[in-house]
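From: lab user (bench 3)
To: helpdesk
Subject: output format question, protein + zinc ion

Hello, I'm new to running complex predictions and I'm not sure whether the block I got back is the full result or only part of it. Here's what I submitted:
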Amino acid sequence: MSQQGYVATPPYSQSQPGIGLSPPHYGHYGDPSHAGSPPGMMKPAGPLGAAAPGGMLPHGPSPPGPQQFGQNGAHAQGHPPQRFPGPPPVNSAAPSYAPYSPSTQSSYLSPASTASVTQLASQLNAMHINSYGSGMAPPGQGPPGPPSAPLFQGLPRPPQPSIMQPGSQVLPPPPTALNGPGASPLPPSTHRQDGLPGPAPLNAQYQPPPVPGQTLGTGYSPQQASYGPQMAGGQLSYPGGFPGGPAQLAGPPQLQKKLDPDSIPSPIQVIENDRATRGGQVYATNSRGQVPPLVTTDCVIQDQGNASPRYIRCTTYCFPCTSDMAKQAQIPLAAVIKPFATIPSNETPLYLVNHGENGPVRCNRCKAYMCPFMQFIEGGRRYQCGFCNCVNDVPPFYFQHLDHIGRRLDHYEKPELSLGSYEYVATLDYCRKNKPPNPPAFIFMIDVSYSNIKNGLVKLICEELKTVLEKLPKEEQEETSAIRVGFITYNKVLHFFNVKSNLAQPQMMVVTDVGEVFVPLLDGFLVNYQESQSVIHNLLDQIPEMFADSNENETVFAPVIQAGMEALKAADCPGKLFIFHSSLPTAEAPGKLKNRDDKKLINTDKEKTLFQPQTNVYDSLAKDCVAHGCCVTLFLFPSQYVDVASLGLVPQLTGGTLYKYNNFQMHMDSQQFLNDLRNDIEKKIGFDAIMRIRTSTGFRATDFFGGIFMNNTTDVEMAAIDCDKAVTVEFKHDDKLAEDSGALIQCAVLYTTTGGQRRLRIHNLSLNCSSQLADLYKSCETDALINFFAKSAFKAVLHQPLKVIREILVNQTAHMLACYRKNCASPSAASQLILPDSMKVLPVYMNCLLKNCVLLSRPEISTDERAYQRQLVMTMGVADSQLFFYPQLLPIHTLDVKSTTLPTAIRCSESRLSEEGIFLLANGLNMFLWLGVSSPPELIQGIFNVPSFAHINTDMTTLPEIGNPYSQTLRMIISIIQQKRPYSMKLTIVKQREQPEMVFRQFLVEDKGLYGGSSYVDFLCCVHKEICQLLN
Ligand SMILES: [Zn+2]
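Helpdesk reply: Thanks, we reran it on our side. This is the complete output you should expect:
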């Protein structure tokens, strides 16, 4: 197949210009003259690039002492040496809530819909859906073992074996009692077709198989109004809904209706199948290139040499050997890295390695840190680096003999030799100015302009701070937090407060020169909360009163950030600003903004400017903040346009979080805000961080997406990074990769802990390499792919017209699938749509991304909302982006109140709702409880304590606490869904056929969008047609 016609690298994912290729380096055997980093591989002055200190090594090998490593957490200091990693005891392996057991699967799920063969002899003239992957099934892969396979086997199961083999299927269990009244809008499973590829056994429901070569045909002509310049070779025919035209389907409507949605791949079925086969088990990371369970599957992860998928997830776990192959397949090679991910209590926290003043052991040439990929040789006196192949001398203090298989005798005693993830205590060489860092500080900065005082927001914030300051993060072995706190209020001037512990009253100092902010006091501004508690409470009581008579409507914004940063700078510490802000900053000052919201720009080449900051003040401010370890978190309470694209820039680039509460109303929204504030203050966070990705030879990191700042092409700088933030990294080949050595990735994050310790957090991951395209497709992870596509597209909206971005996404989806079809699938009718097993749900998820308001050019959607969602997605991890783009929809009327198991989710389509049902929908930002007009009265009584549907007051954002099982179970489910998410979701009660239902319907992402964007079925048809064109 000639690939040239359509293999166009998306312009926005091309590597940055100016990155020189590093020449491959082969064994220089420790020659000191080669000890430096290769060009482009290190930042000379940067802490991560700094050469290991020399000349300080003690002589002779020494056995590991008790201090050489400890475990982070409760046993951190002085713990006796112990062997590790002990597998967690079996009984601790229970997930944080009961796993979805196969027996809870609902009869909603079609046995056929994700079975190995989902062939559709469709009513839609020539379309076949076939997710059969026989062309790439290695011999010997059978159906999966039972889910009860013994633990600790290292799970040698091949990924998704069940669906690789024709005819071997994971069938959902028979319907259970979980389905309540009205729960089964689907036709019985006999309406669907199981079986093998090829001409399908016909039943009355199906038309004859299509004539080979026939395509989707007539209905899908390109819509001229919707699309601009075509990509190379790409004939776009994305149906309907996109700008320039009404949200219409291009095809004859009667054909659309006939395509049975149950016959196309179901995300729910894919999620449930993975849960059934891998949920509740121990997943050991002991083999290279192993595809982890889906991010929606609960299991216990055991580090046996590769980083947990909680820390790193890849778009594929098998890289193509050559860049030609990579170009042919068009599958992005990327890793989504969440270096501070929260680890459940039944998994082992990271060990802390301390080599004292020797510091971490690193390769002389590429500076990679000691890890399981280093090969010890010559009796243990030297080691070969897995990344650059350089042979290094083992430092004398680190020497250890090898056993009969060439492994160090202390292999299992040293985390850095046997684990995928661990931490190092950093030496002074890794600190700014070679001094230990000061503990970080939190500065609270409250907008006290008229409206915030008037609506009670200032009072709410001040009251809450009194409580949450008790919960400042601290090191686990410490009694109190080392974090100092400070307070500033502002409108168009700034008020600093002296809250020194020996004062009877707080003192206020006003800074009116907002053009060049200075810090009027050092002593007494940043204080220990415990010591100054009474003065601080005094202040927090007074602030709402102090400004009660203020009529000041105007605010500044950039000077606020500037003030916080200068204060941290003056105190010589990193830290975080918590800014509570409401309005467009129109007061005369740097960063002053005007209302430039212009809907006329939508669908023009200038639409991108709506996503760009309106002045470069914020960009340079962000740069300064990152340079001084100042992270900015912004709580926004807008009642009109506030220019999120400008205000949100500093939070985004400094690793902070942006929270937005539109038209904040005390009685409706305060709970959501307070939950966010508490969660944000308490969350695990590292400050003043710099991340470096090292790779084995043949490929390298070329592009980075996230809450990051980059001064050069390799150092990912972050003022702070917390447990919810992920950085997505794209890789490109610069040489051939070898199948036997694989592709190795090491992510090192140098950071300051909340206690003021400088540390290195290391995550290692080994991937396979193959010269077979089928291996590549077999190892893909669709959830990570969507995370990558979303971030690269949302980054591109700053520079490219949206229609071009949408075209690229559609094109690339078709390319990836066409390449599979051409090279990996077994021969079949050209008109069949064949999806690789690992990408079965790629089209539906891709369609969800295309329908997101960021990419949807519609004047109905607020510009601020689009800028906000764009920013949120840029830092999302895989689990959050999965939920965000494909919400969870649970049938609540099927609740088994005696069980703690969540009901099985259903597909996000209106056709799955029933008027006798109650459904809960969550996407990580929003939560809806949808009530059908004929909802069972006993449930309404149970949940709301009112006699009927008509009595339900929808003006509530939390459910009443009622002591009956329905209420308790539903509230428990809501808290489980909320628990793992970074944002507090506001609950909206929606009654069927009432106005707010329109908002809810936007989240039924398999349907045609309210503001455009095609249905899943239509999009699949479109992609199929595209593939057919590519294959022809
Ligand atoms: Zn090296």
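A quick orientation on your result: The radius of gyration is 29 Å. Let us know if anything else is unclear.
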